[in-house]
């Protein structure tokens, strides 16, 4: 999410850090900062909210110079974008400074403990606890910055890539990683550290990739790798062949496919800090809703209105099924542009859940403002900290998906769905509609989703021949139909939307049972059907609908559950996903559909990351 870069060597660090940060600009900015140890041994920190240009302007007045430094671009997850919350963060004495990408889950306890022992905090961030922990570790005898960092990190839970420097151990940069990317770049008499390869590619192509729980102590001439307990090991560097543009895309040809592959990590992040493992199984806490609960605004809620546009509506439809099933509260899902002018029946008994990954969609903002004016409490679900929707809402659930650069939504679809499922479980636990055992089982299934997504990515790649046949079939079609029932219907809608958005093949989605009431008239040998047929209570019904279609000579592509030996008799080609509870299956089923639309778009030579006529955030009504 955030970008990190560090330098140690004979040159002036500042221009190298600024160049590295500029190379990370594609990841999005809300603030940036650098810290440099000057020749006199002082730690000089400069930071500014907003784009990198704001930091450059601040530096123009007095640019720090030194041979060791770290830099950071922030993409906020906790704490609003501001000068104070920008990284690097420093300890009380101004001796230690830290940049961080990720979330420190137990920061509130650590912060209370540090304040009680006399530390002063200057920001609202979770990151700042690390600077104070390292300060304490150095004060209590840690022999080096590396050892102080290891001691501090042993107390931290969460996910992080962190980099620290200290004027008390000059000449060293210490980096560590747990569920956040971090690499060391090897130069001649100089070394680098970064969250992403593009930041250092101008200087070196020899890179050591850190793994989870590993620490690198980097000087201009040496890199010492250890685990969190200080046990040393070595790792051979890898040679990076990519050019800069490919490096920004992590070696993938397009952001769209890169972001498809980031989905397991994005879902892990959406669960982070909300679902925790305990002795009796996983438990759920949505601390973001504490204030809303305390205000009493939820006490009178009898129904829920979900508002959104495009992909957000499809995730909202899955959210409706989950809320109605687990919390037994009636839910209406509305397309925001319709809701506004529909004279909606809404008041304090209606909880409005406004979904917009960008946080800026004009229709969703207008519809949400209307609901709020009529007395509805509002929970916003968005990926962008500080976006417009957060100012309309009483509470915000952030997706924590990281920047999504391709115009077409991928990881924001799965993280919105995951977040709504958490909200559904939370509501069900709160109003007593959901039994403890069912809540734990659902949470355990959600926690298993990222691992299963990784399996789907691997098996879809392995099924490349089948995949090729399907993609070629769809690429030469003028039109195709997607069907599904239950949770399979929003999945069909989202699959069809991906295909039309990026490949411009006309694709319609229908509830499978509705086919015979009209759309079936469109089907013939030239209109393929994509059927959502994972294991579910309506599986047999979907198969009957598929048979009706096959009788009209249409070719059938199926998304089914692994081990389904029946499906081959009904479909011309099948992509399988692991067995999952019916509500959760769309989180896996969407992956082959996204990859299929990608392959079709490639074959048709489309502009995949910026499809014609579409924009990432639509700020006009
Ligand atoms: C645009 C995008 C869609 C997106 C929709 C809603 O139309 O092209 O991919 O689903 O806006 O965006 P939001 O940011 O409100 O979720």
Oligomer: single chain
Proportion of β residues? 15-25%
Mean pLDDT figure: 91
Bound molecules: 6-O-phosphono-alpha-D-glucopyranose
Low-confidence stretches: none
Number of strands: 27
Sequence of strands across the biggest β-sheet: 3-2-4-1-10-9-11-15
Taking the sheet with the most strands, its summary is: 8 strands, antiparallel
**Helix tally?**
19
Distance linking N and C termini: 30 Å
Q: From the helix content, strand content and strand pairing, which structural class follows?
A: alpha/beta
Helix content: 25-40%
C-alpha-based Rg, rounded: 26 Å
- Which word captures the global form? globular
Compact description:
This protein is an alpha/beta fold.
